[in-house]
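Q: Is it fine to ask for two folds in a single conversation?
A: Yes, each is treated on its own. Send the first.
Q: Here.
A: Result:
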Amino acid sequence: MNQGSDSTSEVPASLWLAEVWQEYCERITRMLAARMPESLQRRMGVDDLVQETYLACGRRINFLREPGELPVYVKMRRIALQTLADMERKHLAAGKRDAMKEVEIAPTDPDRSDYSDAWAQFADTISSPRTHMERLERQATTRRVLQQLPKIDREILELRHFEELSNAECAAVLEITQKTSSIRYVRALKRFRDLLLEEEKRL
């Protein structure tokens, strides 16, 4: 079944959503777990947020199934981000921007333990540490690099490496061409590597 087109319009909506959700649920869960603030996690679990996202997808089934170039996962991701914003408003009484209308999705906080570890592990792919002390130093080094790295670079690296989006999906999320997305990724990766190696030379 090609879930990105309307060629499956004869498939019942509930069955179609269940099949698509099964394919993308793990990616949606990882993305929400990384972006969900700790203040909200004290009010509800990640699993609860994922369930709310599934219900929201059911309410926006026509949006998910309508034909177009936008990948189904990217549509589902937008609904997930909107659901996250809705839950923050509901539980934290904080005014949040509408994620469905945002072109630029802000990167997550690299100082959070789960995401800091992810960045440190990403840094390990460039030059792997061998001891526990080196791993601790790598985490500190990575945080310093992230302070220097432009947000636009962090964003594309997070999408590609942590959310595991394809170049086409990144382009759709950022509303840029695939060529521009590819160029931005290569430049961001080079800048991250250069800054990391420069920081390590100072140790």
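Q: Second one now.
A: Result:
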Amino acid sequence: MMIHPTRTNLLMLRERAQSVGNSIGILKARRQALIQEFLNTARPFLQSREAIRNTYGKAIDSLSLSLGHEGKDTVESVASAAGRDIGVNVTYRNLWGLKYKDLIVHDKIRRMPDKRGYDFLSTTSRLEESIGLFEKTVESMLEIAAFENKLKILGEEIIRILRKIRVLEERVLPGLRHQIKTISQYIGERDRENIYRLKKFKGV
């Protein structure tokens, strides 16, 4: 909607257009910083996921061999004795004004064989290797859990900023510039008419 074509409103529109331009610059700088943080977080996250996939695969292979050699009853008995609750707290961290969840693990996940709650002398090195690989998998999964939430929050904020920049650049700023141009032309034509009438009045 076109506002009343006065010099005061023209000045106001120019100030608003400048403010919108400054806002776009700030948003783009924030977007760039968030993208950089996203990439820095994504690299170790992707590497960790690949490492977990490999470790888990080895753990499954080792477990299959243990089941074949030691038997299901032995493996289940050891697994039951080694089972435990793991203390984990969820805390919130702040990054560029964004809150994301982080995990604090209170217990050491990977343990020495004599700390697993069973007589490790009665097991085999193959079974111990399998248990160790599964503990390593759990440890790595807890480590990247916070990465997932952080990446999700960063991704959502980047998309939100991109949409806001697009609206400002493609709708708000062009609209203001169009109004500025229209009002400037109107005032210019009105000034020329006034000058013409003044000259005609003076007989110039």
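Q: Anything structural to flag on that second result?
A: Two points. The first helix runs from residue 7 to 69. The chain is about 75% helix and 10% strand.
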